[in-house]
Design goal:
This protein is 26% helix and 25% strand. It has 262 residues and is α+β, with helices and mostly antiparallel strands. Strands 1-2-3-4-7-8-6-5 form an 8-stranded mixed beta barrel. The chain starts with 7 loop residues before the first helix and ends with a strand. Mean pLDDT is 81; it is low at 68-107.
């Protein structure tokens, strides 16, 4: 019976193939672990870090304003109940603004870029976050803040107070704004007053370039049937949609229904 002779060259080739397969497997495992760590970092760590930082900034603003009221403080209009919302302000100046101290209604300070200067609360979502000037990712949004679009109106003023926030990662303050319905309240607190808006309309999806939604009289340029035609006191919340993408924008609009000076 003949014995099969294994040449050294064949052995070396087989050994190289085994090493290549082993090395490839190790690389795949390493890449998988790295990707898993990146996902954990994006979905868990950035949220944890941003939420803690945002909460500290809210507390700092409350100390600066000399009040320690939490998310549940405020008037009946802030309870989230549509029936509790007071009558909308009249145009061009509401009775609440006429009765407010001059420092509250005549002076509109210009916030410094990236500086948190207000607190936005949405009772239905148990949300309470700082509002900062600008919509830069690193300087504002990635900190878990809500960003105010430069050039749009300020809280409680005629025009459109327009803000943006992440829907996923980095605190994701606007993750559930799609759950808001007409009549839900949004409260914006500043050093001089507390403004309450009532959610009025929602545009479920529009282009990321639809600048009409943040104009003084907000109206979509992509979906012209959505928006307003007359001046008023508006609030606009914008975020990305669908979740975990930035292809489109979700828009929620509200109208000012009350103002309470501090």
């Amino acid at each position: 019976m003949r014995q099969r002779i294994m040449h050294h060259g064949v052995r070396r080739r087989r050994e190289r193939r085994r090493r290549a397969v082993w090395t490839g497997g190790e690389l795949l495992v390493t890449v998988g672990v790295v990707l898993l760590l990146l996902v954990v970092h994006q979905l868990w760590w950035t949220n944890r870090e941003a939420r803690q930082g945002a909460q500290r900034r809210v507390e700092a603003l409350e100390r600066e304003w000399g009040q320690g009221g939490g998310a549940d403080s405020g008037t009946a209009a802030d309870s989230g109940s549509p029936s509790a919302a007071p009558r909308p302000p009249e145009s061009p100046e509401s009775p609440a603004e006429r009765d407010a101290p001059a420092t509250a209604r005549d002076t509109v300070p210009t916030p410094d870029p990236s500086q948190a200067y207000a607190v936005l609360s949405i009772p239905r979502l148990h949300l309470r976050v700082p509002v900062a000037e600008g919509v830069g990712k690193r300087s504002v949004l990635n900190k878990g803040y809500v960003g105010h679009y430069p050039g749009t109106g300020q809280p409680g003023r005629a025009g459109n107070f327009a803000v943006a926030g992440h829907r996923n990662t980095h605190g994701e303050p606007f993750r559930y704004v799609n759950r808001l319905v007409a009549g839900d309240t949004v409260r914006v607190e500043t050093s001089s007053a507390v403004y309450t808006y009532a959610v009025d309309r929602t545009l479920r999806q529009t282009s990321a370039r639809d600048s009409g939604v943040i104009r003084p009289i907000p109206r979509s340029t992509v979906h012209p049937a959505h928006g307003y035609t007359a001046p008023g006191y508006y609030l606009t919340l914008t975020t990305c949609t669908p979740e975990y993408t930035s292809r489109y924008r979700l828009v929620v609009w509200g109208k000012l229904v009350s103002m309470r000076p501090r």
